[in-house]
Specification:
Blueprint: E1 2-6, E2 11-18, E3 21-24, E4 34-35, E5 38-40, E6 46-48, H1 50-58, E7 63-64, E8 76-79, E9 82-85, H2 86-105, E10 111-116, H3 122-134, E11 138-144, H4 145-154, E12 162-169, E13 174-182, E14 185-194, H5 199-212, H6 218-224, H7 226-243, E15 248-253, E16 265-270, H8 271-282, H9 286-295, E17 305-309, H10 316-326, H11 339-351, E18 361-365, E19 370-378, E20 381-391, E21 396-397, E22 399-406, E23 415-421, E24 431-438, E25 449-456, E26 462-468, E27 473-478, H12 488-499, H13 509-524, H14 527-546, H15 549-566
Helix pairs in contact: 1-13, 2-3, 4-11, 5-7, 5-8, 6-7, 13-14, 13-15, 14-15
The chain binds adenosine-5'-diphosphate (ADP) and magnesium ion.
Magnesium ion (MG) binds near residues 6, 170, 310 and 340.
């Protein structure tokens, strides 16, 4: 069985294809969005998703989040007994989604289509494929998130050609893509974005303002009173979501140790204030939009429709800004934080040629310019370090291009080829993907010719081939910075190491989450309420140990009722439907 996965920076989701179209897969807590958070308790038990998010408020150093930003890098974090790369942490999220899918669909799920931001480079795409492997999934395709969103909408479209702008403001990244839809075909014409712009910036700005009103400076408070900041952030996240549907919200401020002591201090925030405070963040979407439209060689007026993607587009101020920029009301028939997973499921259906899909065609573009380093003749001397583009940004993929180079010196028998990605004129300002040496160039005068062929496949994986024209001698390399030289045995070992990490049985997930949530609340309550909650918690843990079904259910509902008195709003997972078109 194959599923589609949106492996998000802050939230992930999975979906599968049915004869009636794509459907979301609920997790063990019956929610469609799973927070991309991993944590290890003091007894080294692993938590993924919402329970980990609760744990993160209590023990931030035992949890990792927003690690998608480090995909494909050497970044590591220590959690409990071992260190993890972003790829490994992502694999734990994927494994959790896979298990939820298996429970929901009652079948083995071993293949997936996974989405990545359009701006992900080659290393990051490969790290995503590896994360899938580590989770026991064969990754059939990697597709861009905006492409997936367009597919989710495109499936239902027919008739006239449309030019669509996909506006994706998620938790930590912003992407905008210009997509063509015609006769069931989806073609991405251009993509642009920012790797550090998302809903979390809105939460953080709100938290900074709230802290400021009480005489704190955010950056300093983060170091000096981390418990206070963790709680204010959590409260501001809830307040931000409330402000998407009402005019005002309150944020409760704990003391410096993160405790709520009666009488609890509160800050009231109006939607207008929030809008004003975050205007400068929202302003940053303009430039990438202009760039994407320019790259697509279009004008704003050529855009026939705008699609909203990403949970942060639930904010009315975002919808308003998008409407102003494009001079048109964006579409929001599908939930913005689910649409990418739905599109991935459609793509998964395509992989297995689901009959309901007939002949939907999907094409994509290269997100960066790719090329090699060369020397240029400037006056009478040669200067190195110049970038020669071979595949330009926003070229439709798959694509293969050849560029002929020649040797600079007489009797030069070898040539170093540096492969770079980026938009700068000099290679030092671009990213070095790999380099290799072409040997065996026949001796002779300068000007021996070498053909460099770049092939960029559908997953955005680059292959480079150099051919000495005279001898037809070939050197070819797949640019796999991180996956390089990994043998099947090594992969197997890595998979086994990840599998060895202890997880709770799935049916326990809801109970574990409840305990974590209660433990977090415990610290926030006044002493009087604490005693009562402690009793409930002790009782709950006892009946869990005894496996007394009936008593477990009784304690559970009692705890839930108790906790809901103190929590005006659930901290994650907003499953209300967006206004229909
Ligand atoms: P990603 O794909 O980047 O993981 P999502 O698309 O799920 O993330 O968006 C997550 C972001 O959306 C978070 O910053 C979250 O706070 C924000 N978000 C979700 N629902 C709402 C809402 N109702 N109002 C405002 N922001 C929201
Ligand atoms: Mg997303």
């Amino acid at each position: 069985m194959i599923i589609g996965i949106d492996l998000g920076t802050t939230f992930s989701a999975a979906a599968y294809m049915t004869s009636d179209g794509p459907r979301l897969i609920p997790n063990a807590l019956s929610e469609t969005l799973t927070p991309s958070v991993v944590g290890f308790d003091t007894d080294d038990a692993m938590f993924v998703g919402r329970a980990a998010k609760e744990l993160a408020v209590l023990q931030p150093d035992r949890c990792a989040s927003v690690f998608k930003r480090y995909m494909g890098s050497t970044w590591k974090v220590r959690l409990g007994k071992r260190e993890f790369t972003a790829e490994e942490l992502s694999s734990l999220i994927l494994r959790s989604l896979k298990e939820d899918a298996e429970a929901h669909l009652d079948t083995i799920v071993d293949r997936a289509v996974i989405t990545v931001p359009a701006y992900f480079n080659d290393n990051q795409r490969k790290a995503t494929i590896r994360a899938g492997q580590l989770a026991g999934l064969t990754v059939e395709r990697i597709i861009n998130e905006p492409t997936a969103a367009a597919i989710a909408y495109g499936l239902h479209e027919s008739g006239d050609e449309k030019v669509i702008a996909v506006f994706d403001l998620g938790g930590g990244t912003f992407d905008v893509s210009i997509v063509d839809l015609f006769d069931g075909a989806v073609e991405v014409r251009a993509s642009s974005g920012e790797a550090f712009l998302g809903g979390e910036d809105f939460t953080q700005t709100l938290a900074a303002r709230v802290l400021e009103s009480r005489g704190f400076v955010f950056e300093r408070a983060e170091l000096e009173t981390p418990a206070l900041v963790a709680r204010v952030m959590q409260q501001c996240e809830a307040a931000k979501r409330l402000l998407s549907r009402q005019d005002a919200a309150r944020v409760r401020i704990p003391n410096r140790d993160g405790q709520y002591v009666d009488p609890v201090d509160e800050v009231q925030i109006s939607r207008d204030e929030f809008t004003k405070w975050t205007e400068h963040i929202l302003a940053r979407v303009e430039l990438p939009i202009r760039r994407a439209i320019g790259d697509a060689k279009l004008n704003r007026t050529d855009i026939t429709e705008v699609i909203l993607v990403g949970g942060a587009t639930r904010m009315p101020t975002v919808v308003q800004r998008v409407t102003e920029i494009f001079q048109k009301e964006p579409r929001s028939r599908l939930n913005p934080d689910e649409v990418v997973a739905l599109g991935a499921a459609v793509q998964a259906g395509l992989v297995t040629r689901n009959s309901s899909l007939d002949d939907l065609v999907v094409t994509d573009v290269s997100p960066f310019t790719l090329g090699v380093e060369i020397s240029k003749q400037i006056g009478t001397e040669y200067r190195g370090g110049y970038f020669l583009p071979i595949i330009s940004r926003n070229t439709t993929i798959p694509v293969s291009r050849v560029q002929r180079l020649s040797t600079l010196h007489a009797n030069q028998t070898q040539l170093r080829v540096g492969v770079y990605q980026g938009e700068a004129r000099r290679t030092q300002d671009n990213l070095l993907l790999d380099d290799f040496v072409v040997q065996g160039i026949p001796r002779g005068p300068a000007g021996q010719e070498i053909d460099i062929r770049f092939t960029y496949d559908l997953n955005g994986v680059l292959e480079v081939e150099a051919t000495v024209v005279e001898t037809k001698r070939k050197v070819s390399v797949v640019i796999t910075k991180h996956a390089k030289g990994v043998s099947p045995a090594e992969i197997e070992r890595a998979v086994a190491a990840m599998e060895a990490l202890k997880t709770h049985p799935r049916e326990e997930t809801a109970n574990r989450f409840l305990i974590k949530r209660a433990e977090r609340m415990y610290q926030e309550l006044s002493v009087f309420h604490r005693d009562h909650l402690a009793e409930l918690l002790d009782g709950f843990e006892t009946v869990l140990d005894l496996q007394d079904r009936e008593a477990i259910d009784r304690y559970r509902s009692e705890m839930e009722i108790f906790l809901s008195q103190f929590e005006s709003q659930e901290p994650a997972g907003d499953d209300d439907d967006v206004a229909s078109e």
